[in-house]
Amino acid sequence: MFEQIAQSIPYQHISVGGINISIKRLDLVHPYISGNKFFKLKYNLLTAQKQGYKKLLTFGGAYSNHIAATAYAAQLFGFESLGIIRGEELASKALNTTLNTAQQFGMQLQFVTREAYRQKQSLGYLAQLQQDYPDYYVIPEGGTNSLAIQGCQEILNKQDCENFDLICCAVGTGGTITGLIEASHPQQQVLGFSALKGDFLAREIQQLTHKTNWKITDQYCCGGYAKTTPELLQFIRTFEHQHQIPLEQIYTGKMLLGLTDLIQQGTFPKDHRILVIHSGGLQGRLAAL
Ligand SMILES: *Cc1c(COP(=O)(O)O)cnc(C)c1O
Fold first, then answer.
1. Mean pLDDT of successive 10-residue stretches along the chain, which has 289 residues
2. Which of 77, 212, 228, 239 is deepest in the core (most CB within 10 A)?
3. Which residue ranges does the record assign to the Tryptophan synthase beta chain-like PALP domain (predicted)?
C-alpha cells in the first residue's frame, strides 16, 4: 500500500516569474493523512507492527498535522492511539479542526500543561511514560525520528534526483527535509522554508546529515509557527486562484510565498529546474482564508 502511494503522486507544472516549477502534489495522496506525514509514519508503523505493538502514543500541539495523520494511520492499521497535546486549557474548550479530526479517527487526547509538555524529550519523562504506558509504541513530536527520515527519503524518486537543480520544501521539525537531503544528488540544492522562527533547526539538521547541499531560511515564517500576516493570506488566495492548487497558512503557503519572493528577486537563473514538494496539511487550512 505504501509503495502504491509513492508511485502515484502527480506533478503539476506552473510558471512563477518566468521560471517553470514542478510541484509534487503529496497533498493529493489523501485528504487527512496528507503528504509528508505519510512517509514519516511508514517505517514507524511497520516497526510497531513487527514488534507486536497494538497501541501508539505521540505528541503534538493543537495545530499538529502529525497528530491528525497519526490518528488516521493508526486506525487504518488497527492500532489504538493516544495523543499527548500541549496546553491544559484546551481540555475545557471546543476542539479545533485538527484535534477534532484526530478524535474522529479514534485518537484519545490527553491535554498536559506547557511545562509538562516541554519535558517530553527528557529521559526522566520518557521513563515515566514507559512506566505509565508500557504497551504503547512511542513516536516523537512531529513524528521525526530516524525511521521517519528513512521514510522521507522515498518522497524523491530517481527522476526527481536527476531532473532538478533545486528542491524546495516546508520545514517544521526538520525530519522531512533531512530525508530529502539524504536522498538528493550532491549537485542538487535542497532549500527549506521554515514555519518557525530561529536557527536552531539548521543546527539540529546538521546533527542528522553529513551532506552540505542544503539551506534553511526562516525569513518567510511570518512571525512564527502558526502565525500569519495579511500579506501571506493574500498571497495564498491569489496563488490558489491562479494555479488551482490549494495551500494552507502554516507550511505550504509560507514556502511558496518565500519561493515566489526569491524568484522575483532574481535569485535563480531562468532555466533553473525547481521541484517543490507540496506536503499537504490541508486539513488545517483556515476555512476563512
Ligand atoms: C509537518 C509538516 C511539515 C514539516 O515537516 P517536518 O518533517 O516536521 O519538518 C511540512 N508541511 C506540512 C503540510 C506538514 O504537515
1. 78 97 94 84 96 97 93 95 96 93 96 93 89 95 94 96 98 97 98 95 94 98 96 98 97 98 98 97 88
2. 239
3. 18-280
Mutate to test the pocket of ligand 1, among 58, 65, 249 (most ligand atoms within 8 A of CB): 65
- Taking domain 38-143, whether its CATH number is 3.60.10.10 is answered by no
What are the boundaries of each domain within the chain?
A: 2-29+149-284, 38-143
Position 153 scores a pLDDT of 97
Residue nearest to atom 5 of ligand 1 (CA): 172
The answer to whether 64 is a known catalytic residue is: yes
Q: What is the pLDDT of residue 1?
A: 67
Q: Is 39 exposed, middle or buried (0-12, 13-18, 19+ CB in 10 A)?
A: buried
How far apart, in whole angstroms, are the C-alpha atoms of residue 230 and residue 131?
A: 46
Q: Quote the ligand 1 centre to 65 CA distance (angstroms).
A: 8
How far, in Å, is the centroid of ligand 1 from the Cα of 64?
A: 9
Structural contact between residues 255 and 168, judged by C-beta atoms closer than 8 angstroms:
yes
Which residues lie with the beta carbon below 6 Å from any ligand 1 atom?
35-37, 65-66, 142, 144, 170-177, 251-252, 279-281
20 DSSP β-pair partners: 15
pTM: 0.95
Cβ contact 279:156 at 8 Å: no
